Amino acid sequence: MKKIISLCVVCALLATGKSTYAQTKMAYMSIEQMVSIMPEAARIDTMLQKYQADSLNQTLNTIVAEYQYKDSILTKTDTTKTPKSVLNQLRTDVNVLAYQIQNWQSLAGQAYQAKQDQLLAPIYNKVGTALRTVAKEKGYAYVLNKDVFLVAPDGDDLLPAVAAKLGVKVPTGLNLQPQKPGARPNQ
Fold first, then answer.
1. DSSP 38
2. How far apart are CA 174 and CA 33, in angstroms?
3. Among the residues of 143-186, which ranges form H helices?
4. What is the pLDDT of residues 134-156, one digit of tens each?
5. 168 phi and psi angles, rounded to 5 deg
6. Counting beta carbons within 10 angstroms of the beta carbon of residue 83, is it exposed (0 to 12), middle (13 to 18) or buried (19 or more)?
C-alpha cells in the first residue's frame, strides 16, 4: 500500500513539473541588429563621423601643437635665465603631452565609445521597451540574445514583431537566423 501511495505521489510530482515546464516560453532577438535597422542609426553614424573629424582629430592637432611649442621652448631657447620651477613644469607638461600623443588611439577610442554609447542609449531604451512589450503580449517568459542559439525556430525570433511595434521595416535580405559562432553578422 505504501508503494502505491509513493508511486502516486511521484507521478503527481512529475506531471506537475511537466506542466510548469510547458508553460515557460522562450524567444530570441538580436538587439544590435534591431538597433542597426532603426531610422535613427544612420543619423547617429553621421554624427559619430562628424565627431571623429571635428572633435577627436582637432583635439589631437591641438595636443601636437602644444607639445611642439613647449618642446621648442625647452630645446631651442636659452633656458639659463628661466626659473627652475618653470622648467620643471614645462618638462612635466611635455611628458604628459607625449604620453597623450603616444596613447592617442586608445584615448580617442574610449572617447568615441563614450560618445557612441551616449547617442545610442535612447535607441537601446526604445528597442528594449518595445521588446518587453512584445514579449509580454506574446507570453514569452524569457528572451535571449539570438547569438546564443545554434539552431532556433523562426517563429521565436521577436525581431519582426518588435520592428512592427516600432514601425520599422525589416530590410529584405536581413539574415534573421542565428549566426554561427565567430561568423560576421549580416547587416
1. S
2. 9
3. 159-166
4. 999 999 988 988 888 788 777 78
5. -105, 135
6. exposed
Domain ranges of the chain: 27-166
- Phi then psi for residue 92, to 5 deg, are -65, -45
The rounded distance, in Å, linking the Cα atoms of 169 and 18 is 39
Query: How far is the C-alpha of 10 from the C-alpha of 38, rounded, in Å?
Result: 52
CA angle 137, 39, 56 (to 5 degrees): 125
| Residues in CB range of 79: below 8 A, 6 or more apart | 73, 87
Is the pLDDT reported for residue 8 higher than 60?
no
- Other CB atoms within a 10 A radius of the CB of residue 170 amount to 15
Query: In 3D, which of 101, 120, 112 has the Cα closest to residue 40?
Result: 120
For 12-59, how does the pLDDT look when each residue is reduced to its tens digit (9 = 90+)? 556 665 545 556 888 899 999 999 999 999 899 999 999 988 888 888
Instruction: Please name which of 130, 109, 97 lies closest in space to residue 31, comparing C-alpha atoms.
Output: 130
pTM, full prediction: 0.64
Containing H/E element for 70?
helix 57-76
Return the C-alpha cell found at 179: 549566426
Which CATH entry fits the domain spanning 27-166: 1.20.120, 2.30.30, 1.10.1740, 3.30.910? 3.30.910
